[in-house]
């Protein structure tokens, strides 16, 4: 098994293959999703008390909060997947 892992800040690591989406937490619908995930005990807060800058949706239904920018998570995700990196440069 060759699982690709990405750092989402402060040494927290997520399996790249489980990520569905990476979004900014600014909009009201995303804030609502975060609140609902918290109520359902499906929220993973990996911010260490810092400001949430990225919301990561996992295929398991979990919502992961990160203190790093969505662009940074995207770049780290692309760095672990050379096929995706090549597609973006064509």
The chain-level mean pLDDT equals 90
Give the percentage of residues in beta strands: 25-35%
Radius of gyration: 13 Å
Order of neighbouring strands in the sheet with most strands: 3-5-6-4
Number of strands: 6
Q: Regions with pLDDT < 50 over 5+ consecutive residues? A: 84-90
Work out the helicity level.
25-40%
Estimate the global geometry from the Cα principal axes. Answer: globular
The DSSP helix count reads 3
Q: What characterizes the major β-sheet? A: 4 strands, mixed
What letter string, H or E per element, gives the SSE order? EEEHEEEHH
Distance between the termini: 30 Å
What does this structure look like?
The protein is of the alpha+beta class and 90 residues long. The chain contains three helices and six strands. Strands 3-5-6-4 form a four-stranded mixed sheet. A two-stranded antiparallel ribbon has the order 1-2. A hairpin with a 2-residue loop joins strand 1 and strand 2. It is globular and about 35 Å long.
């Amino acid at each position: 098994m060759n699982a690709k892992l990405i750092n989402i800040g402060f040494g927290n690591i997520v399996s790249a293959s489980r990520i569905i989406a990476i979004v900014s937490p600014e909009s009201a619908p995303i804030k609502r999703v975060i609140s609902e995930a918290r109520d359902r005990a499906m929220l993973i807060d990996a911010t260490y008390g810092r400001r949430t800058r990225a919301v990561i949706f996992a295929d398991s239904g979990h919502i992961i909060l990160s203190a790093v920018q969505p662009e940074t998570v995207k770049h780290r995700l692309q760095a672990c997947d050379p096929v995706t990196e090549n597609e973006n440069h064509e």
